């Protein structure tokens, strides 16, 4: 199947671009000895797990189901962090995860013995209270009142027996200068306990495969922890694995006007690309320009009943018409994992574009996928 023959709406993941990102990540691992694992919360397309598993050290999960997925589909190192674990799930988590990270000392005290008895590595998440994000407080784990990690004033070193590592996660789509700033805060506040640890986890949010990312600075941060404290270093990016490696193909369904030309497409921001509304941001669209940049400007909106189901305003060289196909970029990350069927919206198909340019649909959804979500 050729790209232009795919059904719409359809997510398309480009195998060659995924591999390009993985080569960058595995190069860092080879040069530094650090371990990089896939954060499944951003990208959990298991069709790609065999390829990812050839390059990375494993997966990390935010709960039981992701932990199961990583264990079943990749079968390498399997890490997990949750703000709080459920008593009816902890036994299975302990049975399939080799690194279990706790968000508080109360959770550590509750489940430490069980994890250590199973031979698991256990860690505690720290909050260095070092905010490096501007304008995206919803994604800032160091914001005031954050529920993530233990602050220095709440740290209980007397409970560290059996704890082999510290974990912090403070970044979101950021460069390594922000990691360096954060690492300085970690050392300043928690450095006295680093010598008794075996490993440290830098968390996610590292945009390593972005063109302007400063890889030498990242590698210097890794070596700092290795050389100064003898620590094994983990990173768990999600976006970097599939950054700019996927598309969302959509078709124009209808045209109308309300002070601006409007095109209704068969893709919903609400259902298929919710970060457009949450972040918010304007997704890249191939062949388009900023509003007014090209002769014909349109507001692209989805078919749901939500007034705010708007993808954005784009301009084009030619007028849009019913049946035109549009291709959004960078649609592999935080899209498929966040889809929903609000309004009974069908979920997009999922396809892989192979290295030879051919495409194959690996998953299609229908009415039963909507119906069976609710009793």
Automatic annotation (TrEMBL):
GO molecular function, one term: diaminopimelate decarboxylase activity
Domain of life: Bacteria
Keywords annotated in UniProt: Decarboxylase, Lyase, Pyridoxal phosphate, Spermidine biosynthesis
Domain Orn/DAP/Arg decarboxylase 2 C-terminal: 10-331
Residues binding substrate, per UniProt: 239, 275
GO biological process: lysine biosynthetic process via diaminopimelate; nor-spermidine biosynthetic process; spermidine biosynthetic process
Cofactor(s) the record lists: pyridoxal 5'-phosphate
Gene3D superfamilies named among the record's database cross-references: Alanine racemase, Lyase, Ornithine Decarboxylase, Chain A, domain 1
InterPro entries referenced in this protein's UniProt entry, alphabetically: Ala_racemase/Decarboxylase_C, De-COase2_C, Nsp_de-COase, PLP-binding_barrel
SUPFAM superfamilies found in the cross-reference section: Alanine racemase C-terminal domain-like (SSF50621), PLP-binding barrel (SSF51419)
Protein name as annotated: Carboxynorspermidine decarboxylase
Organism: Paenibacillus radicis (ex Gao et al. 2016)
Organism classification: Bacteria, Bacillati, Bacillota, Bacilli, Bacillales
